[in-house]
Amino acid sequence: MQRYPSDASGDYRYLICIFIAESMENMVHPGGLLALRLALRAVADATLSFLVPAVIITILSASSSLK
To answer: For residue 47, what are the contacts with CB-CB under 8 A and spacing of at least 6?
Structure first.
């Protein structure tokens, strides 16, 4: 069951809160470590999807200001 709306999936802070809540629940179930690993991977992917464009924009802005 999905606990958050799909349009909120872009907000990495929200994903981190979901990750913490889900991992706390799943730690007591068999396969909890696998669920924790998958949740951590999802948070890392979401974080990277925000960082990469920000770094590219910063580099392009810096290089255009040097011209």
So the answer is: 12
| Cβ contact 14:4 at 8 Å | yes
In a domain, 1, yes or no: no
CB 11 within 8 A of CB 47: no
Domains of the chain: total: 1
pLDDT digits (tens, 9 = 90+) for 9-66: 456 677 777 777 776 665 556 666 777 777 788 888 878 777 888 888 888 887 777 6
Q: Provide the residue range defining the domain that includes 49.
A: 6-66
Give the tens place of pLDDT for each residue, 50-64: 788 888 888 888 777
Tokens for 20? 């913490």
